[in-house]
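assembly run, all chains below
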Amino acid sequence: MPIEVLMPALSPTMEKGNLAKWLKKEGDAVKSGDVIAEIETDKATMEVEAVDEGTLGKILVPEGTADVAVNTPIAVLLGDGEDASAIGSAPSVAQQQKVAESAPPSENGNSIHAPAIMPALLPQPTIAEEPDVPAGTEMQTMTVREALRDAMAEEMRRDDTIFVMGEEVAEYQGAYKVTQGLLQEFGPDRVVDTPITEHGFAGLGVGAALGGLKPIVEFMTFNFAMQAIDHIINSAAKTLYMSGGQMGASIVFRGPNGAAARVAAQHSQDYTAWYSHIPGLIVIAPYTAADFKGLLKAAIRNPNPVVFLENEILYGQSFPVPKLDDYLLPIGKAKVVRPGNHVTLVSFSIGMTYALKAAEELAKKHIMAEVIDLRTIRPMDTATVIESVKKTGRLVTIEEGWPQSGIGAEISARVMEQAFDYLDAPVLRISGKDVPMPYAANLEKLALPSIAEIVEAVKAVTYR
Amino acid sequence: MAVAKKTQAASPAAARSASADKVKPADFSKEQELQAYRDMLLIRRFEEKAGQMYGMGLIGGFCHLYIGQEAVVTGMQMTLKKGDQVITGYRDHGHMLACGMDAKGVMAELTGRRGGYSKGKGGSMHMFSVEKGFFGGHGIVGAQVSLGTGLAFTNKYRKTDNVCLTYFGDGAANQGQVYESFNMAELWKLPVVYIIENNRYAMGTAVHRSSAQQDFSRRGISFNIPGEQVDGMDVRAVKAAGEKAVQWCRDGNGPYILEMMTYRYRGHSMSDPAKYRTREEVEKIRGEQDPIEQVRQRLLKNKWVSEDELKKIDAKVRDVVNEAAEFATHDPEPDPSELWTDILR
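ok done. output:
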């Protein structure tokens, strides 16, 4: 049966093109792969290759013809033993073309009968309640640094596919001593010093995770992870989706995030909002040693890529940690750490130090602030925040990161959408100032949030 | 023939022969020639069909065809065993078919249908098969090199003798992470064969316009990684060099670089203006070095098969491809609810 050769599309948006040149003439033998014609659009020239074998029976569109619509038959190819008299009988490619037209094109989305407004946010997962620490459990005072180390060591004892890699994690015992003692206990195969090569070892870690291992990739600071962010987002966060659920990366990226002290702009950036933006990632940023321990253990066991944001200033701070064999906390659960009914303060990580001190100051002025520690940034526990705002009617968010598109901006949008009628004042954001971090001590202090700013914001929203 | 020469170093590892003497093309039995012919022809016909379906608007976005380079994946695949891994960039259809992935599932992914390997959510550049050891399909140029090095790390960690074949092009070879990976792979003696498919053009930029060192087999010299150039149009040469490289890795010697001298007949993607090379150049290579034609001529010359038998093979391959195209045309698009699945586990 003769086969029609159709005007091909150069791109999904092309509708017509010019038939620039015929490279075969009627009667020529054509093998599959032979270039038979050239077509042009304003963007490009493309060669039309024969897909089937035969003889070029008839040219339907002569060269030099402009504006030939895509899928117009431009020539007829004759098969073995056919002659030109066969032209006019049903062409098989034209039938295929009809099929193509009947198949719903995905580009315009017509086939999705979605409601007028689609929910844009991933539905919130159901999160188990935080288990109560059994009464009488002994509390042990330890630093955040020790809690993190214990969390990794406990998990590495449980599961020998877990390994730690990063710069100075082994022999140096960790640039901030978080991995102290791990080399001695687990050996160099599982505690791996890397060259200074963030892009490379982040990619290597994701590859190992795709291969079935459970890497904990330490960045000396998240400031350096900007060199590796392509692998965190494109390779780790998106692969599960792009593979239709077949393959994903179970991996933890951890290290100190945000400002330390007097290290200036390139070493003092808070990346919480950056990673919070990405579907396919879990983002955790705790404050207390107990939360660091319980959530790092949960992160290591989680089958998804987790960005676990620590803070250099918090490393040395001590908190009580329950002395339990296996202290695990649920990911995605915020915690009301101080109850109150006049205003809600929401923060996370080192931001909690400002929030808690401000709450104490406010209490002296008889303003009772309810303080919420988000702990997990993605998925964000909006429900806990909304519940509190329904009670207080007022909300101030606190973070060290920049204001634009920040975590505070996200929380205020959600509260406006879900609890607008309960608000008695606009939501205010206290954040790092919209400048690169300065070096000078006085300027650095000005660039960071302060307790005084929080107290002022609370006074404003409570109209005092 | 340029070969990578090892620099003198004090470590015993450096004393190994890395001058990488070019191995002779493998001697193929009739069965091997026939297998190579079938496997390469399947890729060629599949890609021609994909090009046609793109032209009909059934395939969207980017579509990078592998036509001309078939001998590389076909020869390399002959060197693998169970548990070995394969990873590549965005020009990945040939690699998937060589790994034994189903043509229907690949084509349906190209058309964005629910029966595609990624349920229609990945497209041409993002497909995976845990079962067949194919780890993608990666759209960011060079990313697969670090990822493949990580897969090799897994093999070493688990103390298996499996090898990861990590494919990338002459374009990706200029990405920084390639050299970060080379360094770690040699430092930790990871079993990874880096296969640089040099098809002479990074999109539209010829190698001599992009690369200070155009002999890519030498790109590992400063890391002490041996490398050699291979005639990537001759499936026997690919298999012989591949076997040597894979064995090098299995024996615990660390990584190996193979630069496959190959050529893509079609544009970089479907929307390639083709202004950067002449038609004569394409026709010359196609006429003189075509990987499939080479096997076909040997099969006929040795009188191992007749023209008629080859025609039967051609027809069978065409049937597989037509069936794949048929499936990919009629399979429904993913259910709208799939928008929200596979984000987290």
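Chain B has one domain: 26-327.

The two ends of chain B are 50 Å apart (CA to CA).

not gonna interpret more than that til we talk
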